[in-house]
Amino acid sequence: METKEILQKVKTGELSVEEAEQYFRRQPFEEMGYAKLDTHRKLRSGFAEVIFCRGKADEHLLQIFGKLYSQDGEVFGTRASQAQYEMIRKKYPQAVYDPISRIIKIEKEGKQKKGLAAICTAGTADIPVAEEAAQTAEYFGTAVERIYDIGVSGIHRMLSRLDTIQSANCVVAVAGMEGALASVLGGLVDKPVIAVPTSVGYGASMNGLSALLTMINSCANGIAVVNIDNGYGAGYIAAQINCLAHK
């Protein structure tokens, strides 16, 4: 339960003061031996803990997934494989998997999305990383506009959607190759731009290093850069910025 929910139940008499006190006295993490789940993260930061699925043993992933779901009524995992999804779905048939973003989740119904974040890609090959960003922002309550395939090799495509991009509370620019999209967007908007270099490109792109260096060295103002292919990190920051703007 969330803090406000507990306090409301105390107010209505559904919980006693002593029962609520016991909840708040719990240690701020749950020891599982192989993992320490940060059950108070949402209380501290506003967003609950997320699972990085890749590399986890099946049994560990299944138990972590179930524990977080039982704590908050929803759960979100990144970089999940199809096999991991099939394993989780056997116990949690309500789980949803997107093979493009590799996100697996159980989400509360009727969740409201507020504000606006524009998620932009230079090309279609950047969409998997962009979808990780978009779905992360949406899971954390942000309305998202997807604006894909507007790279600088056809800049008129970007200009045709400029009104929408400029109206967003923040912009996520996802690009591989030379990574120029972030610089162009940074010069056209008065909101923060979160640049995401991707590992898309030919040999000299060095698996995203070329785009990363371009974005870090951008002459446009208001650009922050996350790690190569880190759509989740960009979506998280976009949700934080959007929450501040919406307030």
Summarize it.
The chain has 247 residues and is α/β, with parallel strands linked by helices. The protein contains eleven helices and eleven strands.
Task: Identify the notable features of this structure and list them briefly.
247 residues, alpha/beta, 11 helices, 41% helix, 18% strand
Walk me through this protein's architecture.
- The chain has 247 residues and is of the alpha/beta class.
- The chain is globular, with a radius of gyration of 20 Å.
- Helix 6 (127-139) packs parallel to helix 11 (231-246).
- It is built from 11 helices and 11 strands.
- A 5-stranded parallel sheet has the order 8-7-9-10-11.
- The protein is 41% helix and 18% strand.
Write the layout of secondary structure elements.
Blueprint: H1 3-12, H2 17-25, E1 30-31, E2 36-37, H3 41-45, E3 51-52, H4 58-72, E4 75-78, H5 82-91, E5 96-98, E6 103-106, E7 114-121, H6 127-139, E8 142-147, H7 156-159, H8 162-167, E9 170-175, H9 181-186, E10 193-197, H10 209-216, E11 223-225, H11 231-246
Parallel strand pairs: 3-4, 7-8, 7-9, 9-10, 10-11
Antiparallel strand pairs: 1-2, 4-6, 5-6
Helix pairs in contact: 6-11
